[in-house]
User: Which sequence fits this backbone?
């Protein structure tokens, strides 16, 4: 039976168990003088029985789903005839793939050798056994759970605390998913990166000036030595982010100041959501806009001034990215500016300062930590932004600080290295994970620092 | 006396200077807001200007004859004959009958180029739906090729783009136009078909279905988990290091670049758990992890906004803490949570980068029907089309963007409406 069917079956059994448990508690209570004699409400007895019935089987199901494939694979390979037995990991994976495809019926059986077919048949039979034993075990578990749960229903049994305890643990598990996600990210990029740094030294990666991630298919191939110096990527990323910040910070900050300090209520209710529209537009749309409208426009504009602007210039990608970040900065800055106590403004105005002097000399300095935190969050966003640069920035790694030239970024390289077919042990693929590690670490540090500053600032005025 | 007058004039002069600085400062603010709003306007005008044409397609009216011998088919219910049938011949013959003076291989090829490659298959579908048409002749509008479509639309707009057409084709189109045999019709293909290499046959149905399946899975997983986590953190979590650690993690995950989630999905779900590539399941899982922080944070805000008096009243009546939360706090916080969920879903709908990592970028023609069919999603479809060299795809891409933005606008306005309608202020 399919896992989804088992899941549905367990759900149905759980509902059944709920009603059985509730019914039993009512039956127990009736001769004693009604449900007043029960410790908990009848539905809690029902829930308790349902938990006993469904939870153990669900845990079994989850564990089984995780472990059945690897176990079956190793059993198939272990039992395979000697002439097809793999010698190393690469051929192991190849063989496993082939047997798996044969077993799934994706690969036609005609023209395959006998041992392979035997292994495939073995795999099919093992899978069948696994599926049936899972169904059987799940049913046995839930039946046993049901009986146990029902047997525990008694007038003095404290069902509500028991149910609440289980629920508390479920809630805690949901909250801990965030930790597991972080852990998953760290482990997945770290493991692949360590593998990568085994073939390419860390120093070559972090300080190398040449990026051309080619790996040889044959030993004697021309240009076979891939070089993985990531400095051009870092420079490119910083260049694009710097252009974006040059657009976003002044515009975002000034519009936040105007909206918070000067604008009438009517303008504010119109302009604020209109600016937020920019934040809701998917990045792929910005990428399209940058690649097909802004970049050609800048190129033509440049050539009319006699400048050569690349059609994948950092200026186009960065400029559009800046537009995307405007609402991010303006809403964060708006928050911190409105959080500055009115008494400080009143004090400054009472001393005869004009409104703009008050803003520049009192409000902004008071809000500065919050604004800096917001800008740092925006920088981390610009560094991690992918689609705009994938569509509008170049692929060739160039070490340049000229915004009119085409550069490539860390995220662009991750996407180009990882889309399409890939093998998981070539440095080319692993390099993407090393870049991902860099990206994760840098954005994490920026975020932690920024959140810390913002939090501290908030406490200051609360 | 003299000194104070001097001072007064000094102050007056500095005052004009300061007032001018004030005006300048205000103008800076106005300009900044104008730039932001202009960016919104330019973006929308640009996309709509490029994409509105894609909702119409060029069709050519021809007399086609479903000739049995020409098709090489006797029995319409025999799948083998249907497969071997010479469907392309029908529109070709129809074109040659229309332009009888065309001779020479190259000209004939150009003539055939007027119609879409798929015209024959459209006729096949029509014939299968109406078997009585076999061996009859009818006059029917057939889909034109994408280059013809581009030219005809640009020509109607007054700036003919004929770079990809031969002179003869231009003449033929002129003739057709004079006879009223070429026209623009509603482009139903855009909404009923999957992806295609031929721009005129490509549609967004597959991508929309893929997005829908992925989002449904994301919602099913992320909303209950997110709400549970928020309830735990707001109502039950003890104040200790572990809780702080969870909170730090959630806040940081909300700011991690989305592409990192793609790497996670690739390494954990695909490489470790062997979930198949390109399917909505793995897309939904990755997007769940990505939207969880958003949903947790907004749900917590919603729970926080429920006043403590409600909690105290429930506890005072003898409710247990769980009864207090489930019966009183949760229903009151639900509108805010739903708003957060819609915003999270809108974010997930527009997300592209992590899905590129997990193989949802493949070229998939079939419309996915289940969570395990290979699929792509709307933003990835936009990315793929934007990368295609054919000029006609620019129009298609913009149209797909318009559809995506429409979905997003609907979701966001419904979130705002929901908040206004259901949220209570205490």
Assistant:
């Amino acid at each position: 039976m399919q896992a989804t069917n088992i899941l549905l079956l367990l759900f149905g059994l759980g509902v059944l168990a709920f009603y059985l448990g509730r019914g039993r508690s009512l039956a127990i209570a009736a001769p004693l003088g009604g449900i007043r004699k029960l410790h908990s409400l009848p539905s809690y007895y029902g829930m308790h029985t349902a938990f006993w019935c469904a939870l153990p089987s669900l845990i079994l199901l989850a564990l089984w789903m995780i472990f059945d494939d690897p176990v079956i694979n190793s059993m198939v390979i272990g039992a395979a005839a000697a002439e097809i037995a793999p010698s190393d990991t690469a051929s192991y994976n190849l063989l496993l793939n082939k047997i798996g495809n044969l077993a799934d019926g994706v690969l036609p059986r005609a023209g395959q050798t006998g041992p392979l077919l035997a292994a495939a048949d073995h795999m099919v039979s093992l899978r069948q056994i696994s599926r049936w034993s899972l169904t059987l075990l799940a049913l046995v578990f839930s039946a046993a759970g049901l009986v146990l749960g029902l047997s525990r229903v008694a007038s003095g049994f404290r069902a509500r605390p028991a149910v609440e305890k289980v629920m508390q643990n479920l809630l805690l598990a949901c909250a801990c998913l965030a930790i597991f996600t972080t852990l998953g990210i760290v482990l997945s990029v770290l493991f692949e990166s360590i593998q990568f740094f085994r073939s390419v030294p860390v120093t070559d990666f972090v300080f190398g000036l040449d990026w051309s991630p080619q790996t040889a298919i044959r030993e004697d191939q021309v240009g076979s030595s891939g070089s993985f110096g990531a400095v051009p990527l870092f420079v490119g990323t910083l260049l694009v982010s710097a252009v974006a910040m040059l657009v976003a910070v002044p515009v975002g900050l000034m519009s936040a100041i105007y909206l918070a300090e000067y604008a009438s209520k009517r303008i504010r209710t119109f302009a604020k959501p209109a600016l937020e529209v920019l934040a809701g537009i998917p990045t792929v749309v910005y990428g399209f806009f940058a690649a097909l409208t802004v970049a050609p426009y800048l190129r033509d504009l440049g050539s009319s001034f006699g400048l050569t602007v690349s059609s994948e210039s950092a200026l186009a990608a960065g400029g559009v990215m800046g537009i995307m970040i405007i609402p991010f900065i303006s809403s964060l800055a708006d928050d911190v500016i409105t959080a500055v106590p009115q008494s400080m403004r009143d004090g400054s105005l009472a001393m005869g300062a004009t409104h703009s002097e008050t803003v520049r000399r009192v409000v902004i300095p008071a809000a500065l930590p919050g604004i800096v935190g917001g800008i740092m969050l925006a920088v981390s966003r610009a560094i991690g932004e992918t689609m705009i640069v994938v569509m509008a920035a170049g692929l060739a790694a160039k070490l340049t600080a000229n915004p009119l030239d085409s550069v490539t970024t860390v995220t662009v390289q991750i996407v180009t290295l990882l889309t399409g077919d890939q093998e998981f042990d070539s440095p080319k693929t692993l390099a993407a994970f090393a870049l991902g590690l860099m990206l994760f670490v840098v954005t994490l540090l920026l975020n932690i620092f920024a959140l810390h500053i913002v939090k501290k600032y908030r406490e200051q005025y609360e | 006396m003299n000194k104070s007058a001097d001072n007064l004039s000094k102050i007056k002069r500095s005052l004009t200077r300061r007032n001018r600085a004030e005006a300048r400062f205000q103008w800076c603010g106005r300009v900044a807001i104008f730039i932001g709003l202009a960016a919104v306007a330019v973006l929308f005008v640009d996309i709509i200007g490029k994409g509105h044409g894609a909702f119409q397609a060029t069709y050519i009216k021809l007399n086609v004859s479903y000739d049995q011998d020409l098709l090489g088919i006797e029995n319409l219910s025999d799948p083998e004959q249907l497969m071997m049938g010479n469907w392309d011949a029908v529109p070709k013959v129809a074109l040659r009958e229309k332009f009888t003076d065309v001779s020479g291989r190259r000209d004939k090829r150009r003539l055939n180029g007027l119609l879409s490659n798929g015209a024959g298959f459209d006729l096949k579908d029509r014939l299968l739906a109406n078997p009585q048409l076999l061996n009859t002749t009818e006059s029917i509008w057939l889909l034109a090729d994408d280059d013809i479509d581009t030219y005809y639309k640009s020509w109607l707009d007054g700036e003919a783009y004929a770079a990809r057409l031969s002179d003869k084709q231009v003449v033929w189109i002129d003739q057709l136009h004079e006879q009223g045999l070429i026209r623009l019709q509603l482009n139903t293909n855009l909404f009923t078909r999957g992806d295609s290499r031929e721009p005129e046959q490509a549609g967004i149905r597959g991508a929309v279905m893929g997005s829908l399946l992925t989002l449904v899975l994301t919602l099913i997983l992320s909303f209950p988990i997110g709400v549970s986590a928020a309830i735990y953190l707001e109502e039950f979590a003890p104040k200790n290091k572990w809780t702080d650690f969870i909170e730090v993690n959630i806040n940081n995950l909300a700011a991690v670049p989305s592409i990192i989630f793609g790497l996670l999905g690739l390494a954990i779900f695909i490489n470790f758990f062997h979930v198949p590539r390109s399917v909505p399941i793995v897309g939904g899982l990755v997007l769940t992890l990505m939207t969880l922080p958003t949903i947790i944070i907004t749900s917590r805000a919603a729970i926080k906004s429920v006043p403590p008096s409600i909690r105290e009243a429930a506890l005072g009546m003898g409710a247990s803490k769980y009864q207090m939360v489930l019966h009183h706090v949760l229903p009151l916080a639900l509108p805010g949570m739903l708003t957060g969920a819609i915003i999270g879903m809108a974010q997930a709908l527009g997300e592209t980068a992590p899905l590129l990592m997990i193989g949802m970028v493949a070229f998939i023609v079939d419309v996915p029907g289940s969570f395990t069919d290979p699929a792509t999603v709307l933003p990835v479809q936009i990315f793929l089309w934007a990368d295609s060299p054919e000029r006609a795809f620019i129009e298609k891409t913009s149209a797909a963007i318009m559809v995506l933005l429409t979905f997003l606008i609907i979701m966001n306005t419904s979130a705002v409406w929901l908040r206004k309608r259901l949220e209570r202020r205490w």
